[in-house]
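User: Predict the structure for this protein chain, please.
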Amino acid sequence: MARRDSIKAANLTGTGSKRRGPGRAIWLIAAGLVAGIAGGAFAFRMLVQPGEPEPAKKPRAQPDEILVREEPVEISTRMRPGEWTEESLQAHLEDYRQQIRDMGAKESQIVTNVERTEEGAARVVVSWDRSRA
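Assistant: Here is the predicted structure, written as structure tokens:
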């Protein structure tokens, strides 16, 4: 029968796998991170060419089955005190008006309502009044 010391000594002579261990895991993680960062940088460069102008915004065509002609259209939001200024409020209003225009409303059909509270909050409602011509 073999002694215990001889079995341990036989296993320490290099028969263990070099594929495992903390050093190998760290290298695999580092290589994955580098590949991910490089891939993201490459994808960004492919999407945004240097010096390329931003494409012009054109109105999106809405399918007829989405916009039911009889139903009202309304875009609204509430802003807490400190979340808005008069300039940002006007920017929101113009953006909402433009969205309604893109849906096919005439300027005379767009109704804007802004309610300000005593605490400084604001409620903005821009709607399309289809009864107006």
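The two ends are 105 Å apart (CA to CA).
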